[in-house]
Amino acid sequence: MRHLVSEEEARGRFCPMLGLMAALEADAGGGSADAAVCKGPECMFWRWAGRCLKVGEDSTPVQLGYCGLAGNPLTALLRGRRKTPPPASAANAAEQAPQEVEQEADAPEAELLDDPQDVIIALAAGLEERVASGKTETLHFADLDRELGLVSGAAKTFTAKAAERSKMEVLSEGATIVRIRNNW
Q1: What H or E segment, with its residue span, contains residue 161?
Q2: What is the pLDDT of residues 16-44, one digit of tens each?
Q3: Which tens digit of pLDDT belongs to each residue from 117-164?
Q4: Residue 141 in contact with residue 178, Cβ under 8 Å?
Q5: Long-range CB contacts (within 8 A, 24+) of 142-148
Q6: From 2.60.40, 1.10.10, 2.120.10, 1.25.40, which CATH number describes the 116-182 domain?
Q7: Domains of the chain: which residue ranges?
Q8: Which residue from 106, 115, 105, 126 is spatially nearest to 50, judged by alpha carbons?
Q9: How far apart are CA 84 and CA 52, in angstroms?
């Protein structure tokens, strides 16, 4: 999850958008390389990563975020493997369909998440996607494991911690399902 960074970490990274602008300005006789550094939350592309936190050096929680230019890294984590793009037109769909099947068959299986911290972060993001603010939902542990790419049984083990992290409340938990309320 190296793409989720603190505001401080972001400010030391290269920004492709500002880099392009700096290069164009340099061609016009101005600009500098310092202009190509991420501006963090001052940028229109910056996105806070929901309620994802990490513990700082002084044991205080640090809010994490990411550059929205390339999309949400949590979504990429939850979606698993990369899919090939759909064909450009119906005319060449027949030609591309066998190729897509071969690429899909050759694609490596998505690695299942088994690290407890990764599982909790993925579950927290998954719960935030599934349980709207002020609502209560009943979720199946097996569905969460499968849809989020978790090892079997991880959702049952870590849902309470993920819900707490996302300021949600576990109302009841059974052997295969859990009822959760989003208190935001």
Answers
A1: helix 154-165
A2: 888 888 888 877 766 665 678 888 889 88
A3: 888 888 888 888 888 878 999 999 999 988 888 888 999 999 999 898
A4: yes
A5: 142/176, 147/78, 148/78, 148/113, 148/122, 148/123
A6: 1.10.10
A7: 5-72, 116-182
A8: 126
A9: 30
